[in-house]
Amino acid sequence: MTGVLPDKVVALFRHVGRFVSLLREAFGSPIYDRSTYRQNLAREMKQVGVESLPIVALAAAFTGGVTTEQTIYQMRYPLIPESTVGAIVVPSIILEFGALITAFILAGRVSARIAAELGSMRTNGQIDALNVMGISASGYLIWPRVLAGVLTFPLLYIVASVVGGAAGFGVAATSGSVTPAEFLTGARSFFTGFMAVYGLVKAVVFGFLITAIACYVGFYTEGGAQGVGRSATRAAVATCMFVLVADYLLALLML
Amino acid sequence: MIEVENVHKGFGGTPVLEGVDFAIEQCNLFAIVGHSGSGKSVLLRHLVGLLQPDRGHVRVGDTNLAALSDDELEAVRTRFGMLFQGGALFDSMTVYDNVALPLRLHTDQPESEIEARVMEELGRVELQAAADQTPASLSGGQVKRVALARAIVRKPQYLFYDEPSSGLDPETSSVIDALIEQLSETLCRMGVMVTHDMHSVLSIADQVGFLYEGQMRFVGTVEELRACNDPVLCDFLEANAYQL
Fold first, then answer.
1. Which of residues 118-137 of A touch B (CB under 8 A)?
2. Predicted local confidence at residue B242, as pLDDT
3. Any B CB within 8 A of A225 CB
4. Which residue of B has its CA nearest to A137?
């Protein structure tokens, strides 16, 4: 215990302070050369977005399919209208699963990569090399990665929602329990524009958290190869946890 | 001129530097030697502002590094070049892009001028042919030479070398030594070198500092080092006599 607060709480506050300070430094640092930064941003957007697209689409398709199957199973009573399946599946995907499934995939795939990459740069002296060159390492390395997350995640979320909804529609149509027309009627009747806005806000927040936390963990890596491995694991776990917390807080604030 | 005054530094309650003092003149190559764990690299990191002393001052010219804001420190560092122990080249870039990076980020030079400058420095380290290769395809000696080209591409006033010949065979070490000597003598760059390689020290250094138990136990010329009368320094030199 440190004073009245447990050590872990003190450590958490310390991390939050360092995290905020690192981001302030990163986003407050000068952009030395626009062309280099644009190239770095494009590379990161490719790695975060384009390369994640197949796995996000696959996961979204299975999530949409399973959600539809389970909803059909729970709605098997004759008094419940068939359109209820579409009314549950599509909003669930737009409000929750589209963003959350994408976030979990990126938390594993992107945050671990970013943390390992920056951790390796730290242990190999590349971050120090940037600093000694008079270049703000935090600005040069963190800025493009976080911006790529914030810009790309909403696009992945849209893909996940469309693919998840389409997979749900396909499963419903082939199930024999719900007609395609009933599924679409239900989906349309409950869908509002706010749902899409809410999902996009979540996507931006998750995109920021996943990349920023990974950058923080990787940037302050200590130790050699073991430290890099530890950072990759920590980043994946921490981003999952913070995504869940943010998901809950956004639901409280916006729904 | 670089002045180090009464610098103290500890980590987790363990003192590493305990009142280090010395000064380096322009055009001089100053070698810091000492046993492993004596704090040589920690001292070098103070000189480039990567670490701040718990007490004391590091002055580069008239500037006290500890008193600078991050932005001011970045500005001072544009006068620095540093050769890191492992080279610290960026794996995702080619040799050319590694060397060009400081120019692209700090100057408004058109790419044609940057190319001319980069190829000039790659020529100096005899690696023009490797411009399109990635660091992963280079040998340890080539990585050091590219890192040296990157360190000097902006014609820095101060050059810092962290174990420039570690892990290299004697022949490649000699090549690196010759480059460092050339930079110090012909271009009048002030250099600070941390090394275990006493052969390099005696061949190319102008001044030597022997770091022992957190303090500069000896500071003097190579000739004064050779004529040592301090038993601790003599023991250190004898232990490294195989390199001489």
1. 121, 124-126, 128-129, 131-136
2. 56
3. no
4. B74
Average pLDDT over residues A155-161: 95
- The rounded Cα A73 to chain-centroid distance in angstroms is 30
Exposed e or buried b for every residue in B132-152, given b needs 16+ CB within 10 A? eebbeebeebbbbbbbbbbbb
Q: Which residues of A touch B70 (CB under 8 A)?
A: 25, 136
Q: How far apart (Å, rounded) are the C-alpha atoms in residues B208 and B44?
A: 14
A187: nearest Cα among A94, A90, A98, A93: A90
Q: Considering only residues 5 to 34 of chain A, which have any Cβ-Cβ distance to chain B shorter than 8 Å?
A: 25, 32-33
Minimum distance, in Å, between the CA of residue A140 and any CA atom of chain B: 10
Q: In the prediction, which pLDDT does B173 show? A: 83
Say how far apart CA A95 and CA A164 lie, in whole Å: 12
Q: In this predicted structure, which of A91-105, A182-196, B183-197 has the lowest mean pLDDT? A: B183-197
Longest CA–CA span in chain B (Å) reads 57
Report pTM.
Answer: 0.85
User: Of the ranges A20-34, A205-219, B21-35, B95-109, which is most confident?
Assistant: A205-219
Of A2-6, A39-43, A156-160, B115-119, least confident by mean pLDDT is A2-6
Distances (CA, A) of B193 to A89, B9, B51, B200, B221: 66, 20, 17, 10, 14
Contact residues for B142 (Cβ-Cβ < 8 A; gap 6+)? B127, B130
ipTM: 0.87
Q: What is the distance between the alpha carbons of residues A20 and A24, in angstroms, rounded to a whole number? A: 6
One-letter amino acid at B214 equals G
* Nearest-by-CA chain A residue for B108: A33
Q: How confident is the model at residue B125 (pLDDT cuts 50, 70, 90)?
A: confident
B120 shares contact with chain A (CB less than 8 Å): no
C-alpha closest to that of B180 among B161, B155, B196: B161
Amino acid at B83: L
User: Closest Cα of chain B to A40: distance in Å?
Assistant: 11
The Cα-based distances of B175 to A133, A136, B118, B126, B144 in angstroms read 24, 32, 19, 10, 10
